[in-house]
Amino acid sequence: MLGHIDPSELQCTVAVERLNPAGQAIKRQLIRKATVTLGRNEFQEMVLRVHDGKAPQNFMLRELQLFTRFAKDGKCTVKFIPENTQVLVSDCPPDRLKMFLKTLSIKHQASQGIKPMSDRDKLRAGLPRAFETLSPLQLKDVQKANELRSKVNAPVQAKGPSERTVNKVLGERKQVKRPRPDCDTSP
Fold this sequence. Notes:
By secondary structure, the chain is an alpha+beta fold. The chain has helices at 94-110, 119-125, 139-153, 163-170, and strands at residues 9-19, 25-41, 46-51, 57-60, 64-67, 76-80, 85-90, 131-133.
């Protein structure tokens, strides 16, 4: 029997870049044999964990951008907007990366409706640190993500006809001219 393939875990090369406000890398850490895992912390928030064999680095999956143009080559980038950090993944089997990215995007979209805990509530909870690997995709996750997508992509209904359509219907054409400067220095 072949080993179980976990869609929420990757073995690959990772570069963690801290960015300045202009988006340029000011600090870069390269990890040749890293384990990238999707999971949840003690507050049930989604976390991306990069483990180099020594100390794991956790990145909260709140606001992020996925760059997947080169996913077929085994490369992608996950940019964490509030932390101004990006994780560059490379040397990954393309099929495993595709499953990982699909799991990440659907689970992230499904968790968008949940209100995050405030920092004060987290401190008051006093829960011990924990990390659980994400469960595989389930039908309810896909349905919830599709629901949220349909709400976002729904066409916006105009309340009434716009000024341009009114003018076209009525056949009016208003010409607006720019005011001339009041100077007598014309040639």
